[in-house]
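Its record is quoted verbatim for completeness.
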Amino acid sequence: MDVNYLIKISVNLGPLLTKNLGKLLLILLFGHVLVTPILAQEQPKKFLLLKRGVNQKTHIRYFPGENITYKSKKIGYFVTDRIVNLDTDFLYLTENILRPSDILEIDIRTKDPRNRTLNNLTSLLLGAGTMAIALEGINGLYQNRKLEFSPGVIKTSAILLGTGFGLLPLRYKTFTISEKNKLQLILLEIE
């Protein structure tokens, strides 16, 4: 075959391939957007719901496959286990089968979204206090050739660092089952 002939064919096929490839990608994307919600609706939704009052923002959900740390009536200490399945009466874990009424407390340190907010606020305050005092020290070294801090910056940094350290112990640690705090097994199945 002639090299010029091959170059001419590849030049002619280039726009055709890119046009068809673009159409194919558009069809796949459009099909994905249409099919994904349909498939997601057909799957049964099972989860363990921790309810604190009627506000849905304080509800915490544990789905099958997630780890849960709990204290039960039979065991007086916290145990971490993975949720395998659940039905109307039982919670099936890898090492145990529990009724919701057997659970006394659940450790929610890693699950509660309010703890992430507190962690972010604490990091922000500690970082701001550290940065203010560090920048004042660097500025003093640069301008006066000695380490100097202005009283206002020291007070501001102390307030920021003190507030940050004060927020460290404030976390939602456990969810204790009571009349106000309910534990519920939710099974939403589409028929």
About this structure: The CA atoms of residues 59 and 153 lie 41 Å apart.
